[in-house]
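Ticket #4471: structure export looks truncated?
Reporter: QA, pipeline team
Priority: medium

Steps to reproduce: submit the single chain below to the structure queue and open the exported record.
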Amino acid sequence: MLTAPPARALLLRVLLLAVVAALAAPPALAQWTNRYPQVPGYGHHVYLEGYDLPTMGAGVTDPAPSPDGRTLALASRGWLWLLDLETGVARRLTSGGAVDARPAWSPDGRRLAFVRDTGRETSIVVLDVEGGAERVVAAEAGLELDPAWTPDGAALVYAAAGENGVGLRRIDLATGERAVVTDAPGLAVAPAVLPDGRGVVYVAKRGAEEVRVRDLATGDERVLYAGRILSQTRPALAPDGQTVALSVPTDDGWELVLADVDRPGPTLRLVAGDAPPLAPAWSPDGAAIYYAQADADERLRLMRVPAEGGAAEEVPVRTWDWGTETGTLTLRTTVGGAPAPARFAVTDAAGHPLVADRQAWFDGQNGVVYQYSPGEVTLEVPAGEVRVVAVQGLATPPATATATVAPGGAETVALALEPVWDAAADGWLSGDHHFHLNYGGPYALTPDDLAPLLAGEALDVATPLVANLHTRYEDDQFWGAGSTRALPYVAFGQEVRSHFFGHVALVGTETLFDPWIWGPGYEVFGDDDRENATAIAHARSEGGMGTYVHPVAVRDPFEPGAEGAVPVELVADGVLGDLDAIEVVCLWTDDLGTAEVWYRLLNLGQTVVPTAGSDVMSNFYRTMAPGTTRAYVRAGADASFDAYLDGLMSGQSVVTTGPLLDVEVDGAAPGGVVSGGEVRWAADLASAVPVDRVEVVVNGRVVQTVPGLAAPGRREIRGTVTLPQAGWVAVRAVGDEPQGWPSMAAYPFAHTAPVWIGGGGNLDPAAMREAAHDLLRVLDVSEARFETAYAGEDAPRLRERFRRARAELERRAGR
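Actual output as written to the record:
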């Protein structure tokens, strides 16, 4: 059972709960809450936050040369700065708790319009550069982004997305009068007004993503550049209005290219590399283009390239003038007295995030900017009060401290992290089986960049998935990278994305499955007669496993009208025995809703095991951490990678967003077998966040409920339960509210794999019939969706799969 370190005093537990509550986000039905307002007509909110909202870090981004060419406004550390290009001194222009980004100069060089991000919404602010006065000019319900000045300086054009619609808006700064520029469904961002004021260049995200030129008088538009998922593309208009600089993705990386506004078509490449050239901006004389680009250490550098082509060079910032006294803060984290890696966050007295000179991330569930430390890290911070919080993985309640940094001083904070369980001591290994190293974000990560993340999250096994970004393949160059010889084990898997039929992860395979993509929504293989089961069969043939990932985002997929929430092919594959596992916990979906589908497959006798994946994109700024959903697996004495996979595939596991359940039923652990009748069960529950209840589930129904944990810690639970003569039993832990760090989920949840009653495949007839009836209703909807999408197409293999699944369900339903 669980091995725990010495318990804390109750008082300290209560104090830590206050910190957890401060980091918590509002309740939600699904795992991940949309922290920012959703955009009407834009379906993938994760992409909006990952691609279209501002980022922050210690490096330089969003360069904006002043009209006189002597200075350059930029964003760094969440504030705006003014860089003197001759001296290399950057002077801070803004302060406060919000994150400021994307500055744009007025034509007279006296004002800056910029985006202010509170962590829940954005607004447009205009700053008097010399006087420092600020004026909020656009702060409607929703998002306001990307201000661009009209040539006369009298108005701004900006991107709006919220309750009042989507598209580009124009605001007269003297009167406050607003006018609609575009209002088509989808998203319109990154406007740039032509020098004559008669047109605007912008990015339209409406399925296909296009850089468009719009005539403001007639509303006529033409496409300047088109692609699918132009994640970091933000057009920069040359001073003469004739040329646009674009950062565009390619099959091999990213390029900074030039395109002619009047003659859409071929582009001229200026820069190529693995990391995107971010936020290009022209010098006022049109001779050069500034941009930001991440280096190999994920530090954003300010770069400049001649507009005619040639070598790019770094534009150094030699001195940072904070406009106030600063000092240094050193954070040291330990476990058991020894230096220990950690996930940490630091804020000033106003709540503004303070960051070290390394990659930073924004936890969208809790609203926290976080980084990783190997055990000691030093930050430059403004003098005054700072607040620090640190955790390691999911096992440690937050350790917190408040310190005062003297002007020019050096303050050290030591935080002792005290895990509520020691998984390794009991033979558990933890793994995240669904996340992505790169996925169109501002950085170009390599497998080596995973090391600090895995250490800070105390994650033993990582299987990052190579995947497609529409028709581009991400990270396929890393296939075979990583090591399974020493902890932490890293082995790339593959996400096969027949979007229409459902996403499937292949883990433990030796070769890639082709094609990666097919089905409605794709230009090639759009009506392909191919089943997800073929990809799963590929994994099985190589000793691996196939898993449906992020399958269900609603709480009850069997509620009338909700059956379409289940992936089109999932039921057929599960019923026909062509499914190894289902991703029961994932940050983007609902654990309880996914479990309901899983329960019904188990009731049909399908030995589908649970697995877990965070589905985070590690090269995003706005993303949660790998391992914040994970599986714990008993890997045996050797704790090898193969033993871990064997344990995962045989159901010797627990999946979780935080709590750990170590369960025995009549002496049998998950994956084992017991007899029916009255049996004893035991659970050790350990959690770094409160958990409302522990539930015993038999054949998909909760038959017993006991209290969980009112505070971080652990407790032993003992009881008896009367089991039927067939089926399965499992135990789950559930919380009703988000609890904040170390969790990044909308509610605490853990679920054991089943203990089989009488042996796997020994079915309870009543539970089987009920499950078959429910799954038939879902299959009806899935098959109707298929026939609509494939109307008139010859797809005998897919139709035969639905026919066989229906026949099997009808047989088991007793029809």
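Status: closed, not a bug. The export was complete when the record was re-opened. Leaving a note from the reviewer for reference: Confidence is low (pLDDT under 50) at residues 3-30.
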